[in-house]
Specification:
Shape: rod-shaped
Distance between the termini: 38 Å
Order of helices and strands: HHHHHEEEEEHEEEEEH
Radius of gyration: 34 Å
Structural class: alpha+beta
Number of strands: 10
Strand order of the largest sheet: 5-4-3-7-6
C-alpha cells in the first residue's frame, strides 16, 4: 500500500518549471539565497578554506554563487532546449535533478580549481565539492520549488475567483428539425419541456412570462442526443423536461408526478423506465 502511494505520487504531473519565468525565479533565488547564506553563516568552516587566498571571502563566495547560477542557466535553458527535455511527471523531474546536481558539482569543482589551484583531476577533492554543493543547494532549491508551487496555487485560486465572479451569459439552445435545420433558438432558462407527438415534438417554452408552444418535426430520442444537456431530463417516452423550470416533484404509488413553471395545471408522469435516472440526476441534488 505504501509503495503504491509512493509510485502514485511520483507519477503525478510536474509543471512548476515549464515556463521561462519560473526557471529564472529558481536560478535567481538559489543564487542570491546561497550567496547570503554562505556569507552570513559561513558553514563548514568555509572561512578556513581560502586562508591562503588574497581575495576577500565575500568575493570568493560571490564567485561561487555566480558560477552556480551560470550552471543553472546552462542546465535549465541550454541543455533542456537542446535536448527538448520536458518534465511530464515528478519522477522525470527527480532523475533530471540528480543529473543537474551532478553538473552543478562539476561547475563548483572547476570554480574551486580556479580559486585554490587544486588539481582538477583530484577525485577526493571533487567528492568533497559534490557533498558541499548538495548540502548548500538543497535548501534554496527546495524553497524555490515551494514558492513556485504556492505561486501556482494562488494563481489557480485567482482564476477560479474571477471565473466565479464573471457574469453568466444566458445559454442559448438551438432546436433543430429532423434534417438538422435550426427551427428555434432559445435561452436554456426559457425552455419548459418537450412532448412527443408522433413524428413531431411539441416544445413548451416561456416568452414574456407567457406559455408558448412550437411544433417541430423530429423525435424525442434524436433531440435528447443532440441537446445532451444536464438540465434536460428524460422522464417518459413522451416527455423531456428542463429541470431549471421544475416546480414540484411528488412521489405517488404510481411513481413521480412533476409540474412545470407556467404549466402547473399539467401533471407530467415519470415512468418506471426513467425513474432511477430522474432520481439520480435531480432528486438527490435538491
Amino acid at each position: 500500500m505504501a509503495m503504491n502511494a509512493v509510485c502514485s505520487w511520483f507519477l503525478k504531473p510536474f509543471r512548476l518549471l515549464d515556463s521561462g519565468k519560473s526557471r529564472w525565479q529558481l536560478i535567481i533565488f538559489c543564487g542570491v539565497f546561497g550567496c547570503l547564506f554562505l556569507n552570513i553563516f559561513e558553514p563548514f568552516n568555509i572561512s578556513d578554506w581560502f586562508q591562503g587566498n588574497d581575495a576577500p571571502l565575500f568575493i570568493i563566495i560571490t564567485f561561487f554563487s555566480v558560477t552556480g547560477m551560470a550552471a543553472l542557466v546552462l542546465t535549465q535553458f541550454a541543455i533542456r532546449s537542446l535536448f527538448v527535455i520536458n518534465f511530464t511527471t515528478r519522477a522525470s523531474f527527480f532523475f533530471w535533478l540528480l543529473f543537474e546536481f551532478f553538473l552543478l558539482s562539476l561547475a563548483m569543482h572547476v570554480a574551486n580549481h580556479i580559486i585554490t589551484k587544486h588539481p582538477i583531476s583530484d577525485i577526493a577533492e571533487y567528492f568533497q565539492t559534490l557533498k558541499h554543493t548538495l548540502l548548500v543547494l538543497m535548501l534554496p532549491y527546495s524553497l524555490a520549488l515551494l514558492l513556485l508551487y504556492v505561486q501556482e496555487q494562488l494563481q489557480v485560486v485567482e482564476e477560479l475567483t474571477l471565473k466565479a465572479n464573471r457574469p453568466v451569459n444566458a445559454e442559448t439552445i438551438n432546436i433543430s428539425d429532423e434534417n438538422g435545420k435550426v427551427i428555434m433558438s432559445l435561452a436554456s432558462k426559457n425552455i419548459l419541456y418537450f412532448k412527443s407527438e408522433d413524428n413531431y415534438i411539441l416544445l413548451y417554452y416561456k416568452v414574456d412570462n407567457q406559455l408558448g408552444k412550437e411544433l417541430i418535426r423530429t423525435n424525442l430520442k434524436k433531440l435528447e442526443q443532440e441537446l445532451n444537456h444536464p438540465n434536460f431530463i428524460r422522464i417518459h417516452r413522451s416527455y423531456m423536461i428542463n429541470s431549471q423550470n421544475l416546480v414540484s416533484a411528488a412521489k405517488t404509488p404510481r411513481g413521480y408526478q412533476v409540474k412545470m413553471d407556467l404549466a402547473a395545471e399539467v401533471i407530467l408522469p415519470v415512468s418506471v423506465t426513467y425513474q432511477q435516472d430522474f432520481e439520480d440526476r435531480l432528486i438527490q441534488k435538491r
